[in-house]
Write a structure and sequence with these properties.
The protein has 358 residues and is mainly β. Helices cover 8% and strands 37% of the residues. The longest helix has 8 residues.
């Protein structure tokens, strides 16, 4: 036979079982022949050799005995197991490996299902109330229900204080206005320095707002009422203040508050209501004939029967064209306006007035 490589030989695609293959007898160091049928038989049917050249190993046909000594006995036992359950048994795995259940674990702590299961928590002796939290009881060395201690009480601007029961309380008589930076106290204020005497700032039944003034160097505390510049007067033994005032800058005396305004509707004889000691009335712009006088009623709770009304044409219309006067009554006044010009005037003049008690 000529020298030729096996890979150069013609392919034999459909060998018969009687066809032979070269084989080396390692023990005798001799090349011999063996038929394909003998090779297949030696494998004991474990390999299915198809006529088309494909092959497969029958499941379970090759046992651990045929795998040889390179696999340990433990590995062979694992391969011999019929299924995963049997393999877990071979490996010595616990039941939890199959179930995955916490209850199948061994040596586990008891799971806590409620707070009272904890050894340092007691919510049984004193059951908690709504809004409470667990607080530490140092004497009993355990957590027990108690006040959270930070819940705000009262309404807006009311000052919080300790209610004596480890909680917060508030009162509408004790407030703080952060915008005006003012402290509001609805009762007495006791100033106690821990000595023999206590100073009490006592509230009185007031009819209006009052202020405590601290003069610069006299040491006198005066209880006064009214706005800055108000003239003080004796009100049942208490220094009081009202609408009258004095401007130290301008050196003038008069009303410092209480002024209001009103506009007359319909015509110049229409009555108006303005409850104020001083103010301004804008008259209707209806025509007023030359030399004619029109009267209208000013209803005003500040006016008494013997009062005097000071009237002045302060704006609107022709200056100097009108004469004004009034007659006071209890709760009202009749105001007269006369056109002192030679022609008819249709002007919405503004009359300023001030009440003087007599």
């Amino acid at each position: 036979m000529a020298n030729i490589k096996i890979t150069d030989l013609t392919a034999y695609t459909n060998p018969a079982s009687t066809d032979v293959l070269p084989i080396v007898d390692v023990g005798a160091d001799v090349t011999k022949k063996v038929s394909i049928g003998e090779v297949v038989g030696k494998i004991s049917g474990d390999v299915d050799v198809a006529t088309d050249g494909t092959s497969s190993i029958t499941a379970g046909a090759v046992g651990t005995t045929e795998l040889g000594g390179d696999i340990t006995a433990a590995g062979k036992a694992l391969l011999d197991d019929a299924d995963a359950a049997a393999q877990r048994t071979t490996l010595g795995l616990a039941t939890v490996a199959s179930t995955g259940a916490y209850s199948d674990l061994s040596g586990t702590p008891t799971l806590v299902t409620q707070l009272d299961d904890l050894t340092d928590v007691d919510v049984t002796s004193t059951p908690p109330n709504d809004g409470e939290a667990l607080v530490w009881d140092n004497g009993a060395s355990e957590w027990v229900p108690g006040s959270a201690g930070a819940t705000a009480a009262g309404s807006a601007n009311e000052i919080q204080y300790n209610d004596g029961a480890s909680g917060l309380a508030a009162s509408s008589d004790l407030t703080w206005d952060d915008t005006g930076k003012e402290l509001g106290v609805g009762g007495d204020i006791n100033l106690d320095d821990g000595g023999t005497y206590t100073t009490t700032v006592q509230s009185i039944t007031a009819t209006a707002d009052r202020f405590i003034s601290f003069p610069d160097d006299t040491g006198v505390v005066a209880l006064v009422r009214g706005i800055n510049g108000a003239v003080l007067f004796n009100n049942a033994g208490v220094s009081d203040g009202g609408n009258l005032g004095y401007s130290s800058t301008a050196g003038t005396f008069g009303y410092v508050s209480g002024r209001s305004t009103i506009t007359q509707s319909t015509n110049k004889s229409t009555a108006v209501t303005l409850n104020a000691p001083c103010g301004a009335i804008t008259m209707n712009g209806a025509a007023l004939s030359s030399g004619a006088t029109v009267s209208f009623t000013l209803t005003n709770s500040s006016i008494a029967a013997n009062d005097l009304l000071l009237l002045n044409h302060i704006s609107g219309g022709t200056a100097g064209a009108y004469t004004l006067n009034a007659q006071a009554a209890a709760g009202s006044a009749s105001i007269n306006v006369r056109n002192a010009t030679a022609g008819s005037l249709s002007e919405a003049i503004v009359i300023g007035f001030a009440t003087i008690k007599t």
